[in-house]
Amino acid sequence: MSNKEVAQYFKLLGKLLELHGENPFKTRTYANAAFQITRLEKPLKKMETEEMAAIKGFGKAVVAKIETILTTGALPQLEAVIEQTPNGLLELISLKGIGAKKLGVLWKQLGIESAGELLYACEENHLTLLKGFGEKTQDNIKTALEYYLKNRHKYHYADALRVGDSLLKDLYEEGFTGCQFTGAIRRKLDIIEKIEIIALQKDEKALIDFLKKAVDTLNVSTQKIEGSTIQGIAFEIIFAEEMHFPLLWFKSTATAAHLQLTKANNLKGNFPSEEAIYQSLQLPYFEPELREGLQELQLVDKMPNLIKPADIKGVVHNHSTYSDGSNTLKEMAEACKELGYEYFVISDHSKAAFYAGGLKEEEIEQQHQEVDQLNQTMAPFKIFKSIECDILSDGSLDYDDSILQTFDLVIASIHSNLKMEEAKAMDRLIKAIENPYTHILGHMTGRLLLARVGYPINHKKIIDACAANKVVIELNASPHRLDIDWRLIPYALEKGVKISINPDAHSIAGIQDIYYGVCAARKGYLEAAQTLNAQSPDVFLEWLRK
What local confidence, expressed as pLDDT, does residue 366 receive? Predict the structure, then answer.
């Protein structure tokens, strides 16, 4: 069990105890334990009891609970609190915009135990009758709740892919080698509603018998199999005879809009491959990621050579233990080198992000000295000095110019005061973009997929400002962000703005998120030539000098 998984036990326990009105000291203890666990460099499972007990904030009770979790995979106290909590509240406990304490008040004073009851209470203006709940709080809760209900039963592509890959692996091991992804998961859409698979008709009966033992629920009809995995993600399997497989795979992968654009709606017959299908339509082959039914026909005369994971040469935007990362600077750099990358850009948080251990000026100097030492021992691998610099409320950057000029590059990002009107957000971003020390605009909208909408901005005007100021736009590759949205990339390319596919890695494992960024970038027609960190170290350095 990973440290992150152990931390989730404590995080949920702290929230539920707060919901039930437990002693605030106890709830803070568990919340703090969760935070400290996520910051540990060493896996808890490799620690002795004495080593754990020496960690700040870890008393005997916390250590005992950690050992119970690691030994049994369960936490009896958490299970007991869960049994005392209505299922609907368990669903709402992590809802953005309402804390556990406020949710407890709504439960005890208004009897609210579900999302539907909470939405009704907001619509009937009931929350404003309670102490501590004004009209603004009620509106914020309603907005968060509506967003949550709209996106319930939807999943990040990374989560759906992990479960889907596991399911396909199980099917392959059972001999069902004709099974393939189709639909949105094959198009690598950022948000997935279900895992779609196409299988050979000859395997239908045996496949159904296997799935009855391998998944949570199963519904069989004449056209398809539907159900949900053990992890709770919906799946759908359709069947095709071998001779019809390519055509059905093509049609089930594409959106209805792509089929209409390509005039493939009523296409019939047998084809040896999807390439042959496009040839029959007198069209070039469209990669699955491009079959969305948007602007892809504009590519017919010059099909882009879409970027691939292997094209990425450098890992830009990474955090270390200097701020809120789990691994040291050296460990992160060595991991990138071992993965075959040629350079690494360390971009810890700036001092305004105090909650994330943002760097004070003296810590910057210390980090830069370490970078210089590592560059001597790791050459020709290169580490660049960077900072993820907070864009403050007035649009200025977090450090004085004398500090900013010590970095090789600056990634400017908004992390605070996210609830802004469009005019405020635009002024703030454009002022930062116009700052001569800004090289890259980080996660442009601040969105968290399925959790938080981004601040309202005129996306094209922000891209125009980046073009005018030669600022690169980050495609934040975290599957929870994928920001800039891939649908905006064609406009950025049209304006000559380069994209940098950055993992925003807070651990060695986070470096792998580059893959999800590449998937999104391909949907936006991005090529290696237009990608900043697909350039060699020499070209990257020349860009910095210019």
Answer: 97
